Amino acid sequence: MAIVKWEPLKDFVTFQDRMNQFLSDTLNNYETENGRLVQDWVPAVDVYEDAEAIQLKAELPGMEMREIEVKIENNALEIRGEKKIEQTEKKENYHRIERVFGRFSRSFRLPNTVAQDKIKAKYDRGVLTITLPKREETKPRSITVQVE
């Protein structure tokens, strides 16, 4: 079991992030396309780190790789694209519309430990995986201690 440092203010930061996201979603400019609501949306992203690399996995179901752009600029990684509306049926034929369509953008500040020239991205079954390898000099290493 891993030991996790207790951070009493973390819940407040999480709450603030959720409120910011709520207000952002509420105040976004909505457009209509063929009678359907289109809005900016934010894909879910998991970030995982081990000794070798940092890995981001973004859920982008129903998209083609050509609709997704991954860019690195000023020590920031940006993922953006647009999920196009698939159907042209009239809105009144639907009982419920829950899937989101429209533009999205996510940005992540890259730590100095990332080897930016070795970053790789792949897209498989609706999940974009970006691998950010760590520079050799920043990877953890073991040192043997000799007793004299």
Automatic annotation (TrEMBL):
Gene3D superfamilies linked: 2.60.40.790
**A Pfam family assignment:** HSP20
In which domain of life is the source organism classified?
Bacteria
SHSP domain: from which residue to which, for each copy?
36-148
> Hey, which family's this protein in?
Belongs to the small heat shock protein (HSP20) family.
Q: What is this protein called?
A: Hsp20/alpha crystallin family protein
